[in-house]
Amino acid sequence: MKDLLQRYENKEPEIVFHWNDPETEAEGWTVINSLRGGAAGGGTRMRKGLDRNEVLSLAKTMEVKFTVSGPAIGGAKSGINFDPADPRKKGVLERWYAAVSPLLKSYYGTGGDLNVDEIHEVIPITEESGVWHPQEGVFNGHFKPTEADKINRIGQLRQGVIKVLENPAYSPDVTRKYTVADMITGYGVAEAAHHFYDIYGGDLTGKRAVIQGFGNVGSAAAYYLSRQGAKIVGIIDAAGGLINEAGFSFEEIKSLFLAKQGNKLAAANLISFEEANSRIWELKTELFLPCAASRLVTQEQIDSMIANGLEVISCGANVPFADKEIFFGPIMEHTDERVSVIPDFISNCGMARVFAYFMERRVQMTDEAIFNDTSLTIKNAIEKTYNHNSSSKNISRTAFELALQQLV
């Protein structure tokens, strides 16, 4: 596996597009690792301090993810080094998408990512630049549809991603009009934990869980995990944290989901980040869901959780461990050898799978069909890993090897 990984990591990306905004200090990159299958896909993120290497590692991560979610295309990513809280953000995005629109028309498909919203920013701004849909390049480069078929499938994709959830089994509140895009990634992260116990043995009900990050992914994962009977004992977010060693009730987790302010945890009894960070890793817990930014989780934190009963990690963040390596650094390897680590390209593939699902011909557009498709995709990936390695250790190593055999 390590030889495959080294060859994959060291291979130079096929295309690197570099942009400097003429009106601000913003700088951006689109990295296309390869045009496997004639196209590449990956979302657009924005954060202050982002660099080319971050975008490159995420592009390679996307390519691995597509081996699970489909379609069989290359990995890509766009990243803009700019403060997303700056009031000039909209103008930066408008100029960025205008510059990158020839790629989006031809062979690159994008979507939302960290600090860039799929529905309110990516879709309308790319439309202004003459792109039919942010995934148009995947249609043209990979599927090569007729014009009529392209129109039909793009229409299906447009409708599906922004579809408002109507089924209370999937929506925390049907009156608030949560969409598929709002909920699907966190749903997949929770489903990965559920399927792990079904396949490897055990029962999710009553398992204690710690959630890192309470944005779109972490809050939705906490909601669905709690709904399935797990006990959330701790939540840590940039805004602060909450700890309840007996476990929050499902109604309490649902209320926290509904009360969040944008992508931040909000509660009257919030403790400071510093206090939460000093206490949360010592909690007795079987499940850990890292759903914040990449490369945050340290070996010290992991070892503390292992000492307190940790069994499973379902990765909501891409590359959650604080390794400098693109994928499988020493912290991840150390963790993978001791507990069950469901890698990000399986557990957080929900949005990528939704795109792939709606690119197919005439799919069902019900909440149940969309969410079941993502759940089944994750289940199949975990089962495939289990069939090659039935041990609860080295799951990520096995999953990477299976993926890289398709790419190297």
UniProtKB/TrEMBL annotation:
Gene3D superfamilies: Leucine Dehydrogenase, chain A, domain 1, NAD(P)-binding Rossmann-like Domain
Keywords: Oxidoreductase
Domain Glutamate/phenylalanine/leucine/valine/L-tryptophan dehydrogenase C-terminal: from-to ranges: 181-408
InterPro entries the UniProt entry points to: Aminoacid_DH-like_N_sf, Glu/Leu/Phe/Val/Trp_DH, Glu/Leu/Phe/Val/Trp_DH_C, Glu/Leu/Phe/Val/Trp_DH_dimer, NAD(P)-bd_dom_sf
PANTHER family: GLUTAMATE DEHYDROGENASE (PTHR11606), GLUTAMATE DEHYDROGENASE 1, MITOCHONDRIAL (PTHR11606:SF13)
Sequence similarity: Belongs to the Glu/Leu/Phe/Val dehydrogenases family.
Protein name: Amino acid dehydrogenase
Organism: Leeuwenhoekiella parthenopeia
